[in-house]
Amino acid sequence: MRNTYHEQLAGVGDGLIEMSRLVGSAVSKATTALLDADLDAAEAVIVADEEVNKLYRQLDDEAVQLLARQQPVAVDLRAIVTALRMSSDLERVGDYAVHIAKVARRRYPASVIPVELRATILEMGQAATRIAVKAGTVIATRDLALAAQLLADDDTIDDLHASLFGTLLDGTWDHGVEAAIDLALLGRYYERLADHAVSVSHAVTYLVTGEHSDPESYASE
Q: Which domain holds residue 204?
């Protein structure tokens, strides 16, 4: 019975790692869709999100059943509680990737990104993908040093987000209101998905140490 229980618990962890792989791929493809006006990439992100949502529902069901049937304590209890939190955060990362892809699809065949902002969006997309991938590695390894590195990546996105808004508001913007709205939304999407991925690292820190590393920074949307 206990062997089955621990196999189920390990299965929840494996599912979280798979979720992080899926959402990391989604963020990368959504960025490609934006920069290359790639409709196929945008559609692939939108369609694949159902797999993320299905896995999210499955992991939540498994975690709740483990809580109800096994009444875990100590580390096992923390593992299940943090799994519920992490699956929610990873699902939100996938949702924001879909939002990005939908902007690309809505503007197709036009490119959403003006030439002067391509480098900024590329760097934001790369940093966001890096965070999502690292989140999966942190789940797999419970490496607290790597978890801390996610904060530096998140700072990079925050700085790029501020730079993007600076460009939109500096008085020289000549691409129209619609484009400005798209880019403001995109900046927000990247910033929020990174926050949710970083929240995963905080959950892992709690799992390992029993202490919340920075509860005020947990994503709330």
A: 2-217
CB 37 within 8 A of CB 111: yes
What is the model's pTM?
Answer: 0.92
Cis peptide before 114 (omega within 30 of 0): no
Instruction: Establish how many alpha carbons lie within 13 A of residue 178's alpha carbon, considering only the half-sphere containing its beta carbon.
Output: 6
| Token pair belonging to 43 | 């559609």
Determine whether 119 is exposed, middle or buried from the number of CB atoms within 10 Å of its CB (0-12, 13-18, 19+). exposed
pLDDT tens-digit map of 12-71: 999 999 999 999 999 999 999 999 999 999 999 999 999 999 999 999 999 988 888 877
Q: CB neighbours (10 Å) of residue 220?
A: 9
Number of alpha carbons in the 13 Å side-chain half-sphere of residue 115: 1
CATH number, residue 171: 1.20.58.220
Q: How far apart are CA 45 and CA 39, in angstroms?
A: 10
Dist. CA 206–CA 196, nearest whole Å: 15
- The number of domains in the chain is 1
